[in-house]
Design goal:
Blueprint: H1 2-17, H2 20-28, H3 30-60, H4 63-92, H5 107-131, H6 133-138, H7 150-175, H8 178-183, H9 204-211
Transmembrane segments: 33-57, 69-89, 117-136, 148-170
Family: Belongs to the sterol desaturase family.
Protein name: Fatty acid hydroxylase domain-containing protein
Length: 224
């Protein structure tokens, strides 16, 4: 298993980090050729596992379920599983000496944040994901095999990362105008000493404005 992980890491590095010229040079060396040959089985195995897993999903679930509930559950899992450990670290004081801000949030304040997040996620995010499904379909979203190539995935990630950052920046500046800050954006700044989960702690209107505006800026075909 450890060897497979090493080979997988090497194959990912080869696929995503090396240019065509670099790869040609690498293959000319004995070590590089050996690494590439050893990585081929892991590349094939990884692709097979991913495609088999995706085939299971599209066989047992509809596109609507995958695009709405599937996306929601994936977001909730990643968001809370990555954020909750830092609450434990803060309460235990294990990394306090590395903090720039010396104050800590009380357990009550942390619990309030989590409760509000769950309320907003289920009452705002999830319904919007559900009603947005027809829009995604009109944008050309598909779930069928074969899966997009890594070039398509990488290109879309880079492009939409830049686009989202642009829209978010200017939207954030608008929210810092006097009236909007007082009535909407001030909720996001409620925690003077923020922690990981406060990144999505915001007024429902801000969630709608900043969190979902980007997807409607430039429609394009995509894979679920």
């Amino acid at each position: 298993m450890f060897t497979l992980c090493i080979y997988t890491c090497l194959s990912i590095s080869l696929c995503f980090s090396l240019s065509h010229k670099d790869l040609n040079f690498l293959l000319k060396t004995h070590f590089g050729f050996s690494v590439f040959c050893l990585s081929l089985p892991s590349i094939t195995l990884m692709a097979s596992i991913i495609e088999s897993g995706w085939l299971y999903l599209i066989t047992h679930f509809s596109d609507f379920q995958l695009a709405s509930m599937g996306s929601f559950l994936l977001h909730e899992s990643v968001f809370f599983l990555s954020g909750l450990p830092f609450i434990y670290l803060e309460r235990a004081g294990l990394l306090s000496k590395y903090k720039i801000q010396t104050k800590n949030n009380t357990p009550t304040a942390q619990e309030k944040c989590i409760t509000r997040l769950l309320l907003y996620h289920f009452s705002v995010n999830l319904p919007l994901m559900i009603v947005s499904y027809p829009v995604f379909r009109c944008m050309g979203m598909r779930s069928s095999l074969p899966l997009p190539s890594w070039k398509v995935v990488l290109t879309q990630i880079i492009f939409y990362f830049i686009l989202e950052d642009f829209v978010f920046y200017w939207g954030h500046r608008v929210l810092h105008t006097k009236w909007l800050y007082k009535h909407v954006h001030s909720v996001h700044h409620e925690y003077a000493t923020p922690f990981g989960l406060t990144s999505e702690y915001a007024h429902p209107a801000e969630i709608l404005f900043l969190g979902f505006a980007t997807m409607l800026v430039l429609p394009s075909p995509a894979h679920i």
